[in-house]
Amino acid sequence: MHKKIILTGDRPTGKLHIGHYIGSLRNRVAMQNSGDYETFIMIADQQALTDNARDPEKIRNSLFQVALDYLSVGIDPAKSTVFVQSQIPALNELTMHYLNLVTVSRLQRNPTVKAEIQQKNFEQSIPAGFLIYPVSQAADITAFKATTVPVGDDQEPMLEQTREIVRTFNNVYAKDVLVEPEGVFPPKGEGRLPGLDGNAKMSKSLGNAIYLSDDAETLEKKVMSMYTDPLHIKVTDPGHIEGNTVFTYLDAFDDDQAKVAELKAQYQAGGLGDVKIKRYLNDVLQAKFAPIRQRRAEFEKNPEAVYKMLEEGSQKANAVAEQTLKEVRDAMGINYFN
Known about the structure:
mainly alpha; Rossmann fold
């Protein structure tokens, strides 16, 4: 039986935060270490440029930071191929061929694209590269014949678009060259960590994130500033745990869930102060992220080795993508000089 093939990755638009850790990174490390998968992890710099084209320096700086975050959480270049999207020329040609099989109206109907166009206030001035990024994603996924793509629930329309392109291509050219991927979704209620301010999403742009690279003091400051229960004014007041960010984080990060249940009961009954519960959360997070921070600092001392890892990963990924492109050209009959 063939190993399943995973493709996953991140846009390099800043350092990664603990929401990324809960949502994808820890799961990625577990899948990598299981031995059941061949794992490709892409730093999607071209996709990041679709809405940051005028600020390439931001992408360049973030690329190194994301690579450090990967290494610090346990992504292992000996077990996973970590590569840079823009260094794989075959992806661009595959995108070009797939674009001829997709209509503009189909791209505009994609719910993920629609939501992001609204979010980024593009309205009528949508960069063409941004509109077609689901096709570019299909190229990324199919180039490595990925069977498995770990994604958040909001990315299901992207995967569906990839599957449509795969079916259309295989149908039009009467060859089963491309592989239909399956999505792996986080369990219900997991995968999305609220921001420190209680906002539904932790994000860099909202300034409500704890970064994997935050030092101990910054982490503590952020925890002590967290949103809890606005009605819990006196220690003796009964508190609410629904929508209380501190308890959401304890659910996500504390391995001692019996202790968390006990604290919840105490908080709801009254008699447990916010400061005390935040200090407890700070201890939990410091214990969890101190080793990650230490590893990150070690890798940061040797940028050449980090770039070498990315270069070697990109060379390996390039060979795989080139092979798929050759099969695509053969199927289309555009291999004129063979």
